[in-house]
Design brief:
This protein has about 120 residues and is an alpha+beta fold. It has five helices and four strands.
């Protein structure tokens, strides 16, 4: 029996568009987490349902979201989105764009810690 699609064509198309124009913070983080540099594979702008997480590690069930100032005004949407992704078994961690740009080492340590937390559950 075939698996249901993980997303719809409109969302997948939007994800492809987002990959073409990353924010400076996305570019900064992607340079460090791409190509299994942290020991696991991350994907960027990977459509799931009606949502497009910034970065996702399928293996560790970990989603990384980078938030800019627009997220101050969309707390309910972000909470709904996180709740949905959690219901699929994903852990969602969030960082502000300025954290990535000003403290990339701290962000990477937090990501590694989140992956260790997932390892301890296995």
């Amino acid at each position: 029996m075939p698996r249901p699609p993980r997303s719809n064509p409109k969302t997948r198309t939007h994800a492809i568009e987002l990959r073409k124009e990353p924010t400076p913070a996305e570019r900064e983080l992607w340079a460090i987490i791409r190509n299994d540099q942290l020991g696991v594979n991350f994907r960027r702008q990977h459509a799931i349902g009606n949502y497009i997480p910034d970065f996702i590690c399928i293996e560790k069930k970990l989603i990384i979201e980078l938030d800019g100032s627009q997220h101050l005004e969309q707390k309910e949407y972000d909470e709904e989105r996180t709740k949905y992704l959690n219901s699929l078994g994903y852990k969602v961690i969030r960082f502000w764009n300025n954290e990535v740009m000003n403290n990339i080492d701290g962000v990477i340590l937090a990501i590694l810690h989140a992956m260790e937390d997932e390892n301890s559950k296995e």
